[in-house]
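Question (not urgent): is this output format expected?
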Amino acid sequence: MSELMDRSVSAASTKEAADGDTKTRSIEEIGVEQIDRFTQCWNQHDAGSFAALFDENGDFVNIGGHRAAGRTAIRLEFLALHSNPARTSVLTNPRIGLRMLAPDVAVTVTRWRLENRCALEPRQGSGIYILVKRGQQWRIRNARMAGIVANFEPRLAGAA
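Got this back:
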């Protein structure tokens, strides 16, 4: 993690209530928890729990670029995906970065891999998640699963 991210994450602690006890948790822990829940719901093919992770007006953009706006649409999109191509899929979704944008808004980035027990080839890409705090709950406001273009080699500015 970069020094800038270390500072922004360590500077952003939040008080969260758990079973009546108040404990201090960093936004980094909350970000990890949200992405872990996202991945768990995907792998359990649980549309209701998946949609519940999102803010009421959240957006989910799948790897095909299709956007579902709002919890109901996210649930329906998830059901459609998991009734056919993703019904046997397994998602790994390690988080590679997190940054606070405001005290109640964070963005986290993952490097995902989607494997399917059917004949489809494994896919990989990056995920970008915007997390928002509503009361004491953190929710996903936007999740974007972008695929990686094969054989793409980015060039650094100034490189020949």
